[in-house]
Every structure is written in structure tokens, then in C-alpha cells.
Amino acid sequence: MLNARVLARSWAHLLLGGALLMPFFLLTSVVVGLAAPDTHVTVHLGWQLVAYGLALPLVAVAGLLRPVRPLEVAAVRALVAVPGSALADGPAGSPDARRRAAGWFLAHTALGGLVSGASLALPPAVVFLVAMPFVGPLRRSRWADQFPVLPDPPWLGPPLGLAVLATLLAAVAGAGALLARLAPALLGPTPADRLAAAERRAADLAVRNRLARELHDSVGHALSTVTLQAGAARTVLAADPDFAREALVAIEETARRAVAELDTVLGLLRDEEPGDRTPAPTLDGDLDGLLDRVRAAGVAVHLAAAPRPGALPPVVSREAYRIVQEGLSNAVRHAGRVPVRLRLAHTDEELTITVENPVPAAAARRSGGGRGLPGIAERATLLGGGASWEAAGGTWRLVATLPLAGGPR
Fold first, then answer.
1. What CATH number was assigned to the domain covering residues 197-403?
2. Are 161 and 130 in contact (CB under 8 A)?
3. Where is the Signal transduction histidine kinase subgroup 3 dimerisation and phosphoacceptor domain (predicted)?
4. pLDDT of 105 strictly over 90
């Protein structure tokens, strides 16, 4: 049994196809009229079919245009019983996608044109046939001249009219079902569309991972440092007020920088222009401040070597700062106020970051299952380098190597 709602939506979709065919049909009707000046194309069924046939190649060519697919997909999603996930999004980019979209556009307009013509011609005929036995003058009216043969006796008119109506409904249902079967094949994603979608998902995931690393490294480092600074200030508040005061100043400065770095990450989420965001910290410009804040928490940080200012490419300097920041955060978080040795060995080809600190036995056994160390490895890998870490002989050692010419990958 036909679903009335599905039938009505299919009919509307086919009438839309007929409307899309109309400009092409009118153009070819003019051409046919010029070729046969003594013929009334608009009232002659044979010439109308000729104009219809000539219009279809023009429709196929127009279907190759990129905007056709998203327009047709929108119509199918609104009017055809096809799962939305089976249809492609966006303009047809590849030649294969354009050919499929052109095939769909041709099928939609061709069937829509036939159904639209029948929808205009047959309902008046149905009304005439059904009313003919009850309205005698109809058999002698000008409408009767449109029928090659009138049913005789007249009481055959209503059954014949209902049969014509049923045939029209069946044609609409059949054409709608055919288009519903063709839609996934012709408007569905091509292999190139699926590859592009996978690349977009990978790019989105990379951006999300980057934002997660930035939040973890900046906010996590700030919280670890502030916690240690606050604990140190509380411990010596009565015995050494000057140190406690310095620790509070360091807490204020650390929190202020954390807010600024958080604003930078939120700017990335809001897709602001780079000039509207707080510049990301770099090893060249912000290393001294980072070490001062860690030292203010009572952690002795010894800088064994450092690159000369301006020697690092900006992207390397930025990622190196985050790696050093996370390395110091790990030392503060897991080992407490122990001496930390930081070495930044710089050559013409690469920068090697080494962070070493003594660790208690319990901390030495940790597996590194948090997010900080994998984040360091990801940063190094994106630049074409690598990172490793180990706890041996009571010492925790983190080593990251960053090529200076590798660039983001």
C-alpha cells in the first residue's frame, strides 16, 4: 500500500525536476519552432517530445557544474526517503563526482519533466471522464474534442477516469522509487570524497590534539608550580617572610602568565587572527622567566648550556619552550624540590634538550602513563625529531631532539 506522505513528497520532488527542466525545454522549443515555423510546438505533442529530447543533453552538460550536487542533495534530503548519511556533502570536486551528479541531474529532470507533463494533462481528463455520465453537455463541449475516442456508453467514463488516475499515481510512485534507488549511487560520496573526509577528520584531530597539548602544558605547568610555591610559602611564612613574599609574587606572575596562555589557546578555538592573540612563549624570549618561576618554588634549576638568542627557528623555539616547560613540570610534580639540570645543546642541525633530576624510588617506577610525556613525543615528532625518557640509577632523564630544518610534518 502506498504511503500517502512518501507519495506526496516524491511527487513534489518530481515536479521540482520538471521545473528545473523548463528553461532547457523552452530553449529547445524555440529552436524547434524556428526549424518548423508552421508548427505550433506548444500544442503539438510530437514536437514537444522532440524539444524534450533535445533538452536532455543540455541538462547533462549543466549537471557537470560544481554547485549542482549540493543543491540536489539538499532536495533529496528534504523530499526523498534516503538516509542522509548515504549522500555526499559539498560541491562535486572530482571528475567522477561531477559525472555522477550530471547523471542524477539528468535522471531527476527527465523523469520530473514527464511526470510534470502528465500531472498537468491527466487530472483534467480524469475530472472530465468521471463527470461525463452526470453532465450531459460535456460530451458536446470543446473539451470532448481533446479525446481521440470517448467511452461509450458514458458510464464507462468514471472507471476509466479512476484507472487513469491510478496509472498516474503508480507512475509517480515508480519514478520516485527509481530516484530513491539511484540517489545513493549518484549523489553518494565517491572514493575521492571519502579520502577528503578522512583527511579533514585527521586535520581536525591534529588541531584538537594540539589544543590539548597546549592546555596541558601551560595550565598543568602553572598549577604544579603554583602548588609548590604555595606550599613553600606556607612552610616558611613565619621563619622567612621575605621568601614567602617572593613566593607569593611568583604565584601571581605564574597565574598571570597561565591566564595569558589560556587566552592564546582559546583564541585558537575562536579562530582569531594571530594578531588578536597573545604571542605564544618561546625559548628565546621566555626561558629566563620560566626558570625564575620554577626557582621561586624552591627548585634549584641549573642551566648547563643554552642556544644563543635568535639561533632557533620560531617554530622550534616555540615547541622547545613547551618541552622544557613540561620537563620541569614533571620534575616538580613527581620529585618535589630536588635539583634539576637542564641542558640545551645546539648545533647547526639540531637542538637537543636534556632534563635530569634525582627521583625517589616510587617516582622512578612510574610508567609515564600521563599526558605530558606523550605530548613531548608528539611535539618532537611533528618537527621530525624524537623524544625518550628513562629512570636509571636514581635519576630521571628526558631527552628530546629537534631538527632545526625539519619543519612541521
1. 3.30.565.10
2. yes
3. 208-272
4. yes
